[in-house]
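Table 4 source record.
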Amino acid sequence: MSNLNRFLGGSPGSVLVKLIFLSLLVGAFLAFYEITPFELVERLFSWLASVFDLSLETVLRVGRWVLYGAVIVVPLWLISRLFGSRR
């Protein structure tokens, strides 16, 4: 088996026929739902931006919780360290 056949996963002709057939199926699916490839890319970037915004919002919310808790925990820890028993 040549390097080209090994890379393609078969002979170039058979791989080409498979790719054309799959492209036809995917193109028909997209045409049926009236979706363009550019619209798909735009939706993908929009989805990624919303996931990033959601993740950033979550990180900020968790950070706020840490700060709220630290207002109570750190002074109590400091007091316990200052007045704790020393052995």
